Amino acid sequence: IKSVSIFFIVVNEFCERFSYYGMRAVLVLYFRFFFRWDDDLATSIYHAFVALCYLTPILGAIVADSWLGKFKTIIYLSIVYAIGQIVMAVSAINDLTDADRDGTPDNMSVHVGLAMLGLFLIALGTGGIKPCVSAFGGDQFDDHQTRQRSTFFSVFYLCINGGSLLSTLITPILRGQECGIHTQQKCYPLAFGVPAALMVVSLIVFIAGSGMYIKAKPKGNIMMDVCNCIGFAINNRFRHRSSKYPKREHWLDWADEKYDKLLIAQIKMVCRVLFLYIPLPMFWTLFDQKGSRWTLQATTMDGTFGSLVLQPDQMQTVNPILILTLVPIMDRVVYPLIKKCGFNFTPLKRMTVGMFLAAMAFVSAALVQIQIDETLPVFPSASESQLKIVNMASGQMNITIPPQQPFALGSEQVQHILCSLMKNKPSQSFSNSFLSHCCHSSACMLELGVRIFTITNGIQSCSFSRKFGFGGAYTFLIPSTLLLTENCGNAIVEVEDIKPNTVHMALQIPQYFLITAGEVVFSVTGLEFSYSQAPSNMKAVLQAGWLFTVAVGNFIVLIVAELAKLPQQWAEYVLFASLLVAVCIIFSIMAYFYTYVDPAEIEAQFTRKDEMEPEEKEKNTIELEEKDFKQDQKEKLGKTKM
After folding, report:
1. Is 114 helix (H, G, I), strand (E, B) or coil?
2. Which of 442, 504, 494 lies closest to 471, judged by CA?
3. What is the Cα–Cα distance from 493 to 496, expressed in whole angstroms?
């Protein structure tokens, strides 16, 4: 029965992680291309959502441990989670407000409002159940079943990475499909709908195993005890700030009037680790941009790998693939080899190396961005406008656009010009007689590869084909003298307005390798170090602190994206890399002065003191009784002599 109940929990986690990472994989592109937000706003909202996802676990842990219990917390918040995913899928339906059926929503604020509501519910749900599911799985084992519990956690984290890997492969493919009731658009409803369905499946699977679970009752949350103790110590110290009160060895010692000395000693150990957490958010500032800035970078690159065409948001799959590869390599090969070489590669040194690797990943991203910028067209600035001049006449024309110099434009040629915007209306208008006889068709989006076009007058037709690349923009000029013969008489003139992407997505692999290697060295080691330096009953406090650093890191991205406003993207990458290198140096200095401790030994010292105290009291009482007895005997003897 126990193995079956564990099966339900593992399947639940797989479906939930598929749901979360699948939705998150396409989120920044949804902001960018459905809402038409610019890169900075799309990045800011994305990281605000991620930050909220890492703040709510603290709330979920408190609710589970102090009020509802883990089982009910998972059920209730999973319902909230599923509703949020469904609302998110509904927000992406074009036809919801497209009354004129032109393919563009008539009221974008409705879609934005639904999306923000959905993201809030998802953040509340995924964050709230994050600390509960793994702990609930651990509750299913007895204390002596350490091997089985270890196996469960291995399978559990394998499901997390498996769900992440599959979802980041599948949902971008679903997004790339075209769907719609009246007009065909990129299928964001399907890309969000499948994760929503998986979340509903996750909830159903978890409820199905209800009768088999061991459901521990809430016993109170240690984080509340820690916060209350720290609050009392600060308040008590403030009330006794006068110099007439003797100083105490540590500021937390001001809580010993109310709280147990063992609890105070445990909080001291936790505070020493939390102090080292102060520089850590900068690592997450860089790491989580692989889902925002790096995905947007991939949209300007060529994703053709032979016959395989990779979507920009699918590049994120490199991260879970490398994690599954690098974790055993580090544990079985790299770390033992370093140890054999006689180098003391302590956990804090590993974390420093991880931060440096993440900084180098952004240097690599900056170099790739410089290559991309060289291939991009020159877009008009805020004070400029772009003008396209098309000569459909049979001969050359001389064009004059004051204040620019005149230039010649041949027959069936196109010229793009950047013009400064005029504050006043021109004294005369410009027109060409042949333009009045021209018309143009609406722009359309095409899939990558060779496409065949057919032109017909209702009786005759001709066809011609062209090959299209990622990110290209083209204009086809069809002369009025067109003959509907084979290949349209080779009379169709193709104008390449924007060149297709030529920088290959494979160039992103080095930066993904560096950031993932940094994650393995930094994140895995950081959690291992934190757990080894904290008392057994304070693991939840450290987990909350660790997740809080992730949230703060995402807030930093939000602030920089909105305030820095650097004109070049590569400069922003260099800025982040420089900041992390500076933080890395500060962290290495802090790590140098850190002294490793054994929490179990410190706790044992207090336990021995507590055990000795009753014996000391009993010994002192016996000695006092003997002293009183001797005094009584002396007094009696003195009275007899008198």
Report:
1. helix
2. 504
3. 10
